[in-house]
Design a protein that fits this description.
about 525 residues; alpha/beta
Length: about 525
């Protein structure tokens, strides 16, 4: 099935490329397409390729994204709070002042129409396809050749995707469109465009605060350099500054919350990282994080090719240094920004997704595309999509056991997740770390450990009703103790382990816990409902 899908996509891309390079109808054979017509066809090609490239999202029952189940649980709990039959409504409160609002609301709106799983896939697909499309429009705006934006397609499924940073993923194309508006406004700073820029900045904040800060800095520097006058720059950026009081208010409110008072951490290992999940140090992990692979020869070869192809194929670096500024800023973030802050991990690592788009912004001044290199670009993309498809199907085979046990779980129950084996061989990220949260997303229950413990999230636990399973427990399920975590609160225990750990986990428990189902490495244990019933909320 994968081969036929990839083959069909390849034929479609090749046929459309031939049309791009063909001449106009009824024109002289020696007359090439006008530049505007060629640019239009390139953008259509880019749109088709970008949409086709999202098919790996749809191959698996649940996308292989670490945090995605928790994000979908957030949306589901928000919906369930309106349902009188939801047993756990009294545990939660809604935090509307969150910079993750746009992504959650997009899934929230689509869920009644297509269901929460399909809604998540639609939103993810739009965000992924938006990366090359926004890159192409940016390049077109500054006189670059949008064709080379095709090279960003393999990077759609890098570190940010694998870790399931849903809101950051959505904010990436929004941020690129914001930069596009900045460039246009700088060229022609009329009142309407300046006001629109201010509204866009607020929208970007409610996508993701980190990207709002990142793109806001780039926007201010770009405008200052291009306008060349401090006073005029201030006047032009004044509407955009409307986001500053909003961001400051959120910062002060979040900083004072007990759940976000973790220390700011810098892992400055250039060649090695303190954690294997980072896929390498700040330098050696660049290509692995860009592509979502372990750092081997193939990874570094493909990464190098993606940066070199445009220059080899006929593009020329621009002499406008301001267009290199976003790329330099991105490199500075990757080299010097914190690893974690405010309870948010993997801060600098996720910004690698901007590296190739910003490189192409400066390095792909229109210079024509050599025909032989067009074929190389298409083969690289198709080959990478085939690799992703195969990897996704292998992951889905390992995940099938969870789908099997999920079907036998009653809705509206409380579940404890114990992932002793969060990894799968095909993907470097621990994609099963939060996987049982899909129960919360699809069956109107709750699963601990929950992102509702994280204050910046949309739905959070009431301060007086926090569960005993706190953040960090998901990384060390071997520390489980019935009394310590109040095991009587849970109806189900979902375990992923190579062997039956029931006797070891529940030995001495005051309530009987039996093995209710097993599929592959997935084990479902159920507490005797007649013994010490779970707390009533």
């Amino acid at each position: 099935m994968c081969k036929s899908l990839v083959g069909s996509a390849g034929q479609l891309l090749f046929s459309f490329e031939d049309r791009i390079q063909s001449q106009q109808p009824n024109a002289e054979l020696s007359q090439p397409l006008p530049q505007d017509e060629r640019s239009r066809r390139v953008m259509i090609l880019l749109a088709i390729a970008s949409v086709l490239a999202t098919f790996p999202v749809w191959l698996a029952t649940y996308p292989p994204m670490v945090d995605l189940p928790q994000h979908m649980a957030q949306v589901a709990i928000l919906r369930n709070l309106r349902d009188p039959a939801f047993r756990f409504a009294g545990l939660f409160e809604v935090n509307w002042f969150t910079p993750y609002l746009l992504g959650y609301m997009a899934v929230y709106v689509l869920t009644p129409v297509v269901g929460i799983v399909a809604a998540s896939k639609v939103v993810i697909s739009v965000a992924l396809a938006g990366l090359p499309m926004a890159t192409g429009l940016l390049m077109k705006e500054v006189g670059g050749d949008s064709y080379w934006a095709l090279l960003t397609i393999p990077t759609m499924y890098g570190f940010t995707y694998e870790w399931g940073f849903l809101n950051f993923l959505i904010a990436v194309p929004v941020g690129l469109f914001f930069l596009l508006l900045v460039i246009r406004t700088t060229r022609k700073p009329i009142l309407r465009s300046c006001i629109l820029l201010g509204l866009f900045a607020v929208l970007l904040f409610f996508c993701h605060a980190l990207i709002c800060i990142f793109l806001g800095f780039i926007a201010c520097v770009y405008m200052l350099v291009e306008i060349g006058n401090v006073k005029k720059t201030i006047l032009t950026t004044m509407p955009m500054a409307s986001v500053v009081p909003l961001a400051v208010a959120w910062y002060l409110r979040t900083k004072s919350h007990p759940a976000t008072q973790d220390a700011i951490l810098w892992d400055l290992g250039w060649l090695h990282s303190a954690g294997s999940d980072s896929l390498g140090g700040r330098l050696t992990g660049f290509f692995p994080r860009l592509l979502g692979l372990q750092g081997d020869v193939i990874c570094f070869a493909v990464g190098t090719v993606l940066f070199a192809l445009s220059l080899l194929g006929g593009a020329r670096p621009t002499r406008r240094m301001v267009l290199w500024m976003p790329f330099v800023t991105c490199l500075c973030v990757l080299l010097f920004c914190p690893t974690s802050a405010f309870g948010t991990d993997f801060i600098y690592q996720r910004f690698v997704v901007f590296a190739l788009p910003f490189f192409l912004l400066g390095a792909s001044r229109a210079g024509g595309v050599r025909p032989a290199w067009r074929a190389v670009v298409v083969f690289v993309i198709i080959g990478w999509m085939a690799l992703l498809a195969a990897r996704t199907l292998r992951y889905d085979t390992d995940a099938r056991g969870f789908t099997n046990i999920l079907s036998g779980m009653e809705p509206n129950q409380r579940v404890l997740s114990l992932m002793f084996v969060p990894l799968t061989e095909s993907i470097p990220a621990p994609v099963f770390l939060h996987y049982p949260a899909w129960y919360s997303a699809t069956k109107k229950g709750i699963v601990d450990v929950s992102f509702a413990l994280c204050y910046p999230e949309l739905v959070v636990y009431e301060p007086s009703k926090l569960p005993r399973a706190q953040l960090g427990f998901e990384l060390s399920p071997e520390t489980f103790e019935w009394a310590k975590l109040n095991g009587s609160d849970y109806r189900y225990f979902v375990v992923r382990a190579p062997a039956n750990l029931g006797f070891q986990l529940f030995r001495g428990a005051p309530c009987g816990v039996s093995l209710a189902a097993r599929s592959q490495d997935w084990w479902l244990y159920e507490k005797d409902p007649h013994c010490s019933p779970a707390t009533t909320f």
